[in-house]
Amino acid sequence: MTLGERLTLLRKEMNLSQEEVAERLNVTRQTVSKWELDQSTPDFDKVIPICKLYNISSEELLTGRKADVNNNDQEYNLMTDQEIKKKTAKAICESIALFFIAIVWIIIASTFSFLKEEIMVGIFLLIVGAGVINIIYKVSSLPEKKSTEIRKAKRKQTHKYDDALAILFTIVYLLVSFITGAWHITWILWIVYALVCEILHIILDKEEE
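Above: the chain's sequence. Below: its structure in token form.
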């Protein structure tokens, strides 16, 4: 693709006429037309204004290749806040489902006398580990969200979530322990609690950035 073809494509993508482009760049419409027909090239002092007008780098304008710098910003522009939230929520739901599966496994497995405790705990940790890896990988691979929230407010919010999780896991721990009587195994729930808290901190730190 020639420079003129790129200029034409960029102008049409922004729904601008040659007259509008000429007015913004302080040149004549005939000049813009010549650029797009490859009859002439923009003067050096017009390269930066053209890049600002079309929101591209000079490398992309002259060569057609997008620069690799500010990759997170480019990804962010391609992915809306709503899409980021949906992907984050999906990763959280998948991991929470795995945590519940791990808890159900411990409850059910504790009724099988032929299963060794080491095997039960090993399978439990494998399922929990899969949940942790899933959410850390998926959330960390998302582009950073631009946030203007104050760090202090974020920390207060984090502490509130930690307190709520502590109460929730205490209730679950006591219920599961009393129902199954497997006090020697249910302590593993506190490992899950610590992992969930760390995941929550990662997510909130990601938003804070």
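Residues 80-208 form one domain.
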